[in-house]
Structures
1.
Amino acid sequence: MHIPDGFLSPAILAATGAASAGGVYWMSRRAQGEIEESRAPLLGVMGAFVFAAQMINFPVGAGTTGHLLGGALLAFTLGPAPAVVTMTAILAVQALVFQDGGVLALGANVFNMAIAGVLGGYLLYRLLGGSRSRGIAVFTGASASVMVCAVLALAELRLSGVPMPPALLGVSMGLFAVNAVLEGAVTVGVIQALARLNPGFVKESAAPLRRPVLAAVALAAVFLASVGVWFASEAPDGLESLADKLGIGGRARAILAAPLPGYDAAWFGNAAVNKAVAGVLGAGLAFAAVLLLGRILFRKKAA
Amino acid sequence: MTDPVVQVAGLRYRYPDGTLALDGVDFRLEKGETVAVLGPNGSGKSTFVLHLNGLLQGEGTVSVCGMRIGHETLTPVRRKVGLVFQDPDEQLFMPSVLEDVAFGLLNSGLKPEEALPKARHFLRLVGMDHAGEKAPYHLSGGEKQRVAIAGVLAMQPEILVLDEPTTFLDPPGQRDLLALLRSLPQAMIVVTHNTLFAESLAARAVFFERGKIVGEGTPRELLDCFNWSLPGPSRGQPPPAAGSSGQSRL
Amino acid sequence: MHHVVLERWSRGTSIIHRRDPRAKIIALVAFLAAVATTPDSCAPFRLPAYAALPLAAILAARLPLGGVAARAAVVLPFCGVFVVFSLVAGETQRAAALLEKSYLSALAALAVAATTPVARFLAGLEALGAPRFLLWVIQFLHRYLFVTSEQAQHMRQAAASRGAGGGFRFRSWRLRAASSAIAVLFARSYRRAEATYRAMLSRGFQGRIQLLYELSPDWGDALLVVLGIAVSIGLRVAMVLPA
Ligand SMILES: Nc1ncnc2c1ncn2[C@@H]1O[C@H](COP(=O)(O)OP(=O)(O)OP(=O)(O)O)[C@@H](O)[C@H]1O
Ligand SMILES: [Mg+2]
């Protein structure tokens, strides 16, 4: 899911870059402020840990293997802001040292994997944390973090004009879903083992959020902003009908039409500009949602 | 007799997971003296050493040069006590060897142009001046250990504490380290499983067991008393190599 | 290992290696921006002209051209997927554009990464205003990457030597074994982080790391910035000139 350079349009690059710069700046201030000073080495070493953990392959079936992404695991153990910073550091090293993901595209990759993925997963974890079983919260949060990354990345690529034939897209979504389930299962396994080793490792999720409704709305916004922008752009017919069948497409278009009147009409007279504007707004919307969500989480913590 | 440079009384420490690692330790170190710390794995030696510099703070008192370790005295105490860790990977965290040796110097307020020549000097002292630009992870275990020692020596502490400094060193490296340590004027505490090294370096030794000091004397006396040496070479087998930590009990 | 080669390359002393990291970063961004804004219609015949800039840098840095070119190919698998997508959708030109743009960008990024040691790169980013805390985390991450990966490797070997591994069939116990291996790796890393922090404290660390790299830009750096931007813009304009 590391998007290389050369794929994203300038508008998407600018939007995700700005969103990530702001988000990471804010999160790194947070991480620095809220936890003890010892955390720079801790976050760095845990980043190295995620790298190493990614080397441990899991059989997926049909001769393929998957591996942990680790963003959710970090969020459940270190907390959301440190996890965002650590994932950002990982992506930066992957781009600089391993040419895994582009340099300009780093903004997009950070936005997808370090910000939206981590915070989305963490939010679900916290939302479900009140329920009996921690396993469900962990599984859902970790799976969601992968799906959020994947959907955002595909949406950004699609908005940049990269063609996605429905059949092939279906196959990739299937693979992502398998990966998401795997991430969930492995994260549950690791969290359980960690809790046995030292219960202090795992951040307690039992405390329900103070404003779950608001948080749920924020989460829905992240999903719909990403999925919606994508579907609302000229998605391939097959996909659109699929979306309609699922009842997503219509809703997504409706939601998009509200803040963006005349989206389908030639507002700027040019389809490419339209797409770009939608991309910027979509990314901005998702980012605002994430910010809002973070704010809620952190206020809860400070209280 | 002058005041001791290190004085420890009734030190107890329990790790957060419940392990009682130190269970009433009394200890003193005189000016210019070298003491070897012996004892089986897990007896609390490393835990003890971490207290000498305020990195862990248990019950009881630890005083360094007359200062009782507490929140306000941490900075001066850390300047006086130089600690070389058991695992050199934990200590070498800067991107290059030279920067790592200079790390402490820069923290003590030196300018880079003052710190660099000094760092180079101490690298030369441990025979690593050729590797200044290298990244620590490209070094062998013994090389890492030498650099870690240089990084602490560079700060010119009054008291040197070394936790198993010979683990990764080859016999010539151990000999060089021995000569280097002997030439230093500082008071020293050396934790080691290397009996030959302890005997050649220290006139006095203490023996840890289950978080307590259970014996004190010359290294030879303790090694005999606790049956701490390997048997002599047996027929057809080469004598065991000195300096492999942790193997001496097996 | 992968990053060890890069590390070795980056310790060279060529005219490119000696440039201020900020100058290289600015030139790189200018180049990448030029490539990113080039219309797909310039593929497949015009786009390759961009290669002139990274190739010049690689040659001036006396890096092995073949080795660098091969490394830049790590983007190809990802590209391959979307090239297939584009071909299936009948957009041949876009397929070519994706391929060329991503490869050229990777080549340029590599030309900078292979001539700038990570510590200098970070010093440059700091001077350009990146958050210090994040750079610190990156520094530690890079430092312990090798140590931790080696640990993981050893655990894998130890598990294999006790008969784990084998076929590809999904088995829940194997998932569990791998999960606990990761948990152990986590706990060890956590402990190492604490120990490292202690080692820093014991050498007088008070919350601020001093970097040894004093950046002192000279005329060569200014020239690199000007050249990098001018050539990038020049190529970008030339791309859309009528033939
Ligand atoms: N961070 C920790 N958390 C919990 N227990 C610990 C921790 N560090 C050490 N211990 C425990 O404390 C006891 C003393 O450990 P210590 O490292 O001081 O032993 P040591 O004498 O240095 O051993 P060795 O010769 O193997 O280096 C051991 O039982 C060990 O398992
Ligand atoms: Mg020890």
Note: Chain A touches chain B at residues 41, 198, 200 (CB under 8 Å).
2.
Amino acid sequence: MRRFLQRHVSQVALSPSLALIAIFLYGFIAYTAAVSTTNSKAFPRFDSFVGLEQYWRLFHTPRWHVAFTNMFLFGGLFLLVTISLGLVIAILIDQRIRAESFFRSIVMYPMAMSFVVTGIIWQWLLNPTLGIEVMVHQLGFTSFRLDWLTNPDTVIWALVVAAFWQGCGLVMALFLAGLRGIDEDIWKAAAVDGIPAWRVYVYIVIPMLAPVFLTVVVLLSLSIVRAFDLVVALTNGGPGVSSDLPSVFMFDMAFRRTNLGLSAASAVVMLGTVLAILIPYLYVETRERA
Amino acid sequence: MIDIRISNCNKSYGSLRVLKDINLEIERGEFIVLLGPSGCGKSTLLHIVAGLDRLSSGEIEIGGRDVTDVEPKDRDIAMVFQSYALYPTMSVRSNMEFGLRMRGKPLSEIRPLVEEKARMLHIDHLLDRRPSQLSGGQRQRVAIGRALVRDPKVFLFDEPLSNLDAKLRASMRTEIKKLHLTLGTTAIYVTHDQLEAMTLATRMVVMKAGEIQQVGKPEEVYHRPVNLFVADFLGNPGMNFMKGHLRIDGGHVVADVGAATIPLDGYAFATPPADGQAVVVGLRPESVQPATGGEAFVLTLKPTLTEHTGSDNLVVLAMGGEEIVGKFPTETLPKLGEPVTVSFDLGRLSVFDAETERRI
Ligand SMILES: Nc1ncnc2c1ncn2[C@@H]1O[C@H](COP(=O)(O)OP(=O)(O)O)[C@@H](O)[C@H]1O
Ligand SMILES: [Mg+2]
């Protein structure tokens, strides 16, 4: 017994947390998957097995289609805006400007706030009777209109701007760290070769940041799938259901519409989406290490 | 013809003076080696010649043109770095082509040029690889190739061999030497390795704490160091130093160094010697040899330690309270404790003032 303990002390020490992970993570994933095959309403009931009917229903619910499409629309725009602007800001800060830490703090500050606070701040800023629109009117441009929050066609931009404002700092910090990690001599060699700075960025430095891009895309993608609090605080899915995301749909079905089976099915589809992002990433990462 | 002129060059980082009033003239075709301990400002001086660092004051001329305020790309120079500094996202071929393409040279002219230089450096079979797929030695060849294709007026090398293992370093050293003999391009080469400096330089510049100590041909700097620092920095094992005083005795100058009195009749004093002057007499280990009879100056000393290096025997000899090292041929291996008679090659002596540490 003692020999066994001596030899396996690390496994023994880790086993309680492994057991907890097994139960609360994988156990409940399995439980959710099981619920998604039942006709559960307010409470899980396993005597009402319906097979894959909930999935069939899910994909015939117009609101789910809006939510699922929104996730890709919001996600695509958010990734594009945050990565490109985050990279541009990182490059600007990398020019050894004066008061660098001041600018860095400004960009990083929103990270310290929860999505709920971010949502409320932008709800005020985008409110036509309180925020930016009123400010611009006071400057004399009375024809200016900013109705993102009330227009179903543009409400997605409100989400993108708020999420960008929050996520930009992290992206900038990751890119800046990557830029600072690049060998100074490469810049010197390029200067001697007569390569203009923008070409060094485009042809040499940005391609060298490929691993950072991968990390950023994965981090942001996961935050897109998880996005819930921001939507609830900023638009609450409205106007109508035009800014719904799968997470909001899932919450609504489970706790307001008492349709646990359908909610569980949507949760499983979301898990599938996350895995579709993560598995290729892990594959590339582990192959690079090997 | 002067190719590079560095005049009254100073460089400070804040209150730290990294280069102090450097003056240097380099003839076309010379291979100048900047030698000195780490942190003495060699790289800074090279960067200033390249235009990668700004001068605090002074002037730089290349090819008769004042380039003090000229961008690196317009100075007609090429540089090789210790870290190779290859562009990791490009193939070897693109690395070598990129600089010329930026200068608007047509690809039809660049291609054959790159292939010719690649053959010259034996990297023609690697042209389509990425730098990450090459060994250290191959990477440095590519870096040299990238500099060669530019066909610059001046080559600048910043410790290009320091990241390579000893054997590779030696073979790359000879190759760089051959390249210089073939091309005859002016070069400035920074190193802290005295062997590289001695073998490559047509003239070497020894630096210490931002100041030039001595400029000269390698054998001149080696045999006639201008001060104790240079004497001590060069040579392996280092020069023997014997502290003592000068004595002028009926027109003859001798140095009393404790256990011995060394005659200095044949010594070419740079400044007139004074009676009683405190001096340090320096003699390189290879000038301390077993006596064979007939030498002008011999001493009998006790060996305290012997070391084989393969090519010689290093013999540590007790001399008064101090020790000196002799570099003996391998066939002569004295027994410890049994006195041996050694001769000093008086023609190779260096005498320094003990106070100013300068050669007298
Ligand atoms: N950018 C810099 N800022 C401040 N000090 C520097 C900078 N670059 C070099 N130095 C200092 O200048 C001195 C000389 O550096 P360097 O020329 O790199 O020495 P070497 O190449 O001879 O080893 C060192 O003391 C170094 O710390
Ligand atoms: Mg250096």
Note: The first strand of chain B starts at residue 2 and ends at 13.
3.
Amino acid sequence: MSLNDLFTEIILDHYQHPHNHGLIPNPTYSSRGFNESCGDDVQVSVLIKNGIIADARFSGAGCSISQASASIMTDLVKGKSIEEAKKLASRFYDMVKGTEGEYGEEMGDAISLQGVAKFPVRVKCATLGWHTLEEAFAKNDGPNSSEETK
Amino acid sequence: MRSDIKNDFPIFANWREKGKPLIYLDSAATTQKPARVIDAVSEYYSRYNANVHRGTYELSQLATDLYENSRTAVARFINAERAESIVFTRNATESLNLIAYAWGLNNLKKGDEVILSDMEHHSNLVPWHIISRHTGAVLKFIRMNSDFQLDLQSLKDNIGPRTKVVSVVHVSNVLGTINPVKEICRLAHEAGAIAIVDGAQSAPHMPVDVREIGCDFYALSGHKMCGPTGIGALYARYELLERMEPFLGGGEMINEVFPTTSNYAKPPYKFEAGTPNIAGAVGLKAAVEYLEAVGLKEVEEHEIALGDYAARRLAEIEGVRIFRPKTTGTGVVSFTVENVHPHDISTILDSEGVAIRAGHHCAQPLMRKLQVQSTARASFYIYNDKSDVEVLASALEKGIALFRPRKKADVTK
Ligand SMILES: Cc1ncc(COP(=O)(O)O)c(C=O)c1O
């Protein structure tokens, strides 16, 4: 296991210069996730328009893997439906847990997190943003959740 | 310290054979075990295994003797006045919970005050949160100053007739600070409060004399002092144990049981419900004897010297910030590195065979005081030496280079 498999240039770039950083003022869904053992903290908010994720942002603090993964995730889910985003999340979990399979274009920059599979203790960091996104979707008390199909 | 002391701990040779020498710098979490302890546990199971205090046959008597001999050894180790002052528990956490439930729940009432400190481990915080919810007792805190030491003035300012408990950590598992527990216990007693010392990080690392400290209770964990996991101890002044209600009920802790009532055995048995960790106690006795043979004074000097050295060496690295008092530190060195998260530091060091801890170290309130989310922590023990510090420092330098700040990539989305 080489460190360069984990801390790839793409990861370090997202970590040091995160995309979509901040919070959406009136999100359709939002949630906050913690990684108890190491203190990673990620807040995710999304805005749905016409059934499509129009905006996704995150904020928080934590290790390079958790923050880069959340940054990549917000890039990836924009323009997708909730169902598509959930499918992508499940593909992502498979990838970082080392499940055999073809992980291609659809994974975008997330492909650079493939190396996490070789560092089992870091899987939780990589999945934190995605789990938090799914938790946000699962909550029915989002401020505008009834409007999501408009 | 003997230069061949690593050979007492089989795990190091086993990893060397695997081609991956282990640089173990996480002894504040749990220490490695000497062969003597491992063998004692194994020998117990292969020669003496039986339940204690109930068998009416020779084997059970042998097991009981071994178990009770361990109590005597632990009492000697911390200079308790009598063996019956030692209650076996699972670990320091259980010892502290035992006090909170068996003493706190029955003696605290609304408006009473419990004084803790800014540098407590969750195991000396959460039990008091629970007890204060039940009783209405109020929690107060001895403050920490900018040199990571407790400010006794803040204790003097807060202690008073309502103070019923003062409970503090002897040595901080994050900062390594050795707290002035003797003075704290004196102030507690002056105010009529009981004094509790969390000794999880002192018993393994320095000579401890509970009578010299003057505490009413002292908690320790076997696994942090070369012993097996799952065995710990609570020292208590015997009169207090006699006046306390039991913690857990069941076998071994009773005298007589009727359908609706029961009366209890004498302490310490009153607090040891159910079949205890006999093998653990046997292992703990071997650990105590091992540390006594090494010499606790020598352990302490070795650790402080290594801690001082590591703190100096790491401070030379750009971006490293050390959280350790100037004069009262031990072999615990917490640090952060600018632009590199502690969890990433830990992974980087792990790839070089160096095991350290990264996180909040079960001390979230302290992390907030330090205004960090987490720290990296190297903690040294008898089997570490300066060469381990060198490996740590150079691995850290490598990691910092990997994380050097980059310009924003040209292709951004
Ligand atoms: C200061 C302190 N107190 C209490 C504990 C709790 O020890 P255990 O987990 O063995 O119960 C620890 C262990 O990390 C500690 O460092």
Note: Confidence is low (pLDDT under 50) at residues 143-150 of chain A.
